[in-house]
Give the backbone structure.
Amino acid sequence: MLNIAIRAARNAGEIIQRAAENVNHLTINLKTKNDYVTEVDQMAEQEIINIIHSSFPEHGFLAEESGKQPGNDYIWIIDPLDGTTNFLHGFPVYAISIALQHKNKLQLAVIYDPLRDELFTAERGGGAMLNNRKIRVTQPNSLKGTLIGTGFPFKSKKDLAAYLKMFAALVGDTAGIRRAGAAALDLAYVASGRLDGFWEIGLQPWDMAAGILLIQEAGGVLTDFSFKDRYLQSGNIIAGSPKIHQLMYKAIEPHLTDNLK
Ligand code: IPD
Ligand code: CA
Ligand code: CA
């Protein structure tokens, strides 16, 4: 199943990179405020679904652009192009994210960065890899010197004030905070030690599913803002090594509004 997912991700990567040469000629549609989609997102998603469906016709799908397709106990969770806004601007940070869930448990994960030809993979119980080499989260003892990833709540203003307080609480204690614009890659970077931690409000399951398994298999910890594991439901996530996760949670917790808990 992992090999099929890798083939699907690489084929989608080819579609995306071919389109990147002609990005000015794409038709761009607005889904909701600040949320763009192009025919590239749709073509890449269709390619991924076709490849997986031809091998596993019974499996279901939850894909960003085409939504839910019912099936058996296996569900593929797909973001065909994470970082669409970056892609449209030629800002070179975007990826394809594919995860497989079986009876609500994540089983495998693929995040593919077509620009750098970096393939992040994980299988439950089998560890996490970058281009076939094992990866681990970092193990700092404090926030001092850490590099933390995040995403801004740019689609709706309702959580912005709380987010800015979280940001203020963390920024001075770390070496820096990065907002690169593709949550799946941010999570893959935590798994591979390029980032020490990550938090974001209001993500969708397809932004997170593959990255969650990668971090778990790389020795990291994730929770939602209630210190529970309902991040796929709430969209709110804090991730890092056990120590960094705990320190980030401590900094974020005092600023949670009721709707974020
Ligand atoms: C977006 C990116 C971004 C995150 C947004 C997502 P998309 O995904 O992951 O980093 O902040 O919340 O919607 O729309 O480019 O697939
Ligand atoms: Ca996304
Ligand atoms: Ca997307």
Remarks:
- The first helix runs from residue 2 to 20.
- The two ends are 36 Å apart (CA to CA).
- The pocket of D-MYO-inositol-1-phosphate (ligand 1) is lined by residues 79, 82-85, 151, 181-183, 200, 203, 207 (CB under 6 Å).
- The chain has a mean pLDDT of 96.
